[in-house]
Each structure stands twice: as structure tokens, then as C-alpha cells.
């Protein structure tokens, strides 16, 4: 992994080097693309592209994550509104709970709904289960304001934390995202399969949508369909793509790299 410093992140922020890629999500019922997850990438001056694992944890520790999130938000809203993604798709955006400790991000999103015609149903925020558990009341207050405005809330990496049940009942989640580790292991043992099946059933009974992350194989896809999961995301469908490629993928899934939507069974 590349080692970066806080000063390099600051310089990257000044030079607008952070961009969003989009990883498609498909309905397991219709096989159509129903949305995407926005994932940050750092385009360095030398042309290399860095993944968030190399800089997001440092940005969080150095309290630079709020600046990064606020810099990505106009990009995201521009892509949603000006590039028409918001008309048909729901795009999720990862936030850290420190982004929600003060009301700046919340106000920026509410303002975009009012002044930039951002349809609230087109945006969902992803927060990890672990972060949700560790956050204070001001975070939940801001989340509630966004939720009241119609913005979705997904619990990211579901299944690797501790007290999901309590958090699920207290917070206005609309979606859970099954962690890719859980998806990877669900075919290893009958116990793991049962955990996934019952998590999906529980979420649906609570009125929540379920997205399976990290779906890489046809057997995982088939198991999830049989378990009643309705949305999947993962390399089987597509890797995260730059905006132009993502738009091309949505328009002509079978002409792009990644797997043709509707033909996932022919993939392997
Ligand atoms: P995440 O939110 O759980 O995102 C899913 C990660 O899984 C992404 O990694 C994605 O590329 C990867 N992935 C998707 N499908 C597959 C698959 O089939 N197999 C495997 N092995 N991996 C798959 P990525 O883009 O490197 O992001 C890593 C993490 O960085 C994210 O995990 C999220 O926690 C964080 N992150 C990404 N973008 C942002 C952002 O804009 N802001 C913040 N605060 N965090 C971000
Ligand atoms: Mg995520
Ligand atoms: Mg995740
Ligand atoms: Mg993750």
C-alpha cells in the first residue's frame, strides 16, 4: 500500500485531486441497474489512482475527512443533477460520522434539495455499523433531519459489528448492506447461510432494503436470489467506474467492461 502524509492530502484537496467513481447496483428481480455507490479515488498528479484505503483512515485521524466530504458533495450533486443520474437511480455516498457531528454537511445537502433540484430519493448516505454505534446524539439529530427530508440511510458493512438490532431500531435506516466478508463466507457452511438468510428476512420484515456487497461469483448471486435479497453490488456486475464509463454502462450494459446486466448467468 502507498504511504501518504496528511500534508499530501491537504495539497490534494487544494488541487481538487479527489474524484468519484460509481459502482453499479443491480436489481436481482429485474436485472436492471437501480443505482450505484459513489466511491472516492485520488487522482495523483503523476496519473496514479489511489483507493480510499490508502488515505481515508488517515484523513479521518487528521480531521481532514470533513473537508474531503464537502469537496466531494458538489461533484456528486453535479453528477446526479446535471448528468441525469438522479432521474432514474439512487446513488449512495459514504460519510464518516464526524461529517455529521456538526450541521455543515446536513445543511449543504438540504440546500441542494431546495436550490439545485436534487430529488431526495436519489441520494442515500452510507454509514458503517461500527461508526453508528460510536457516535453521539448530535450525529443522530443530523441524520434525522436528512431522513425527514427524504434522504435514504444505509447501514454499511452490516454483520461485522455488535449491536445491530438496537441500532437498527433507533436510527432511521432504510437499507442494510451485507458486508462483503459475510457474502464471501455465506456458502462455506450451513450456519453462515442461515445467518445471511435470516438477516435478509429480518431486514425485510423491518421494512428495510437489503444490498449484498462484494458479489463476485454466480453461485453467490444464485444463493442471494434464492434467499430473497433484492439488490446486489460487486465485481460480478462491474468494478467501480469513472462517471463517463458508468453512464455508458447504464446505457449499454452489454457493450462495456464488466458483465452484461441480465446475462449474469452467462458470466462464468
Ligand atoms: P465500502 O463502503 O464498504 O465500499 C465497498 C468497497 O468494496 C469498495 O472499495 C469497492 O470497490 C469494493 N468492492 C466492490 N465490489 C467488490 C467485490 O466484488 N469484491 C471485492 N473484493 N471488493 C469489492 P473501495 O472503493 O476501495 O472503498 C473502500 C472503503 O473506503 C469503502 O468501503 C468506504 O468505507 C471507504 N470510502 C470509499 N469512498 C468513500 C468516501 O467518499 N468517503 C468516505 N468517508 N469513505 C469512503
Ligand atoms: Mg459503502
Ligand atoms: Mg460496505
Ligand atoms: Mg467495507
TrEMBL record:
Coiled coil segments of this chain: none
The protein's name: EAL domain-containing protein
EAL domain location: 2-254
Signal peptide, first to last residue: none
Residues of the full protein shown: 1 to 268 of 396
Top-level lineage group: Bacteria
Gene Ontology MF term list: cyclic-guanylate-specific phosphodiesterase activity
